[in-house]
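User: Sequence in, structure out. Go.
Assistant: Echoing your sequence, followed by the structure tokens.
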Amino acid sequence: MTRTGGNATVPLDRLDPAPSANWIVYDGDCPMCSRLTRWRAVQAGLPGVRLISARDAEAPEVAWLRAQGVRLNEAMALNDGERLYTGAAAVERILRLETVGRLRWFAPLLRPGVPGDQVYALLKLGRAAGLFLLGRRGMDY
């Protein structure tokens, strides 16, 4: 995988065949992750996207990501049918959707020069705090 500052973006033809396309795998116990992925602007920007909890170890997409070496306790993943985005790259891909960009309250995050790594760091901090406050644990994978 090509890694840049915690991001990973890989053309799918460089990986073992994925079990399906057009999905987001996220921590289903994390309130912030659930909120972001279930957001209508994301769904409109990625028509037909399937949302899969990383805690569903039986899901073929989760097993496939683990086989590719993706640590799902540390990163969400987005497969748009052409590329696999993980971590900050997945969040940046979501934030760059035209349907998300139309929302004024996201404008500060979409300014040129605001790296996805910074936004992702805030989301990871929020995830850790949310799981702690809810008495939930991270995943072992």
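User: And one key feature?
Assistant: Residues 73 and 138 are 6 Å apart (CA to CA).
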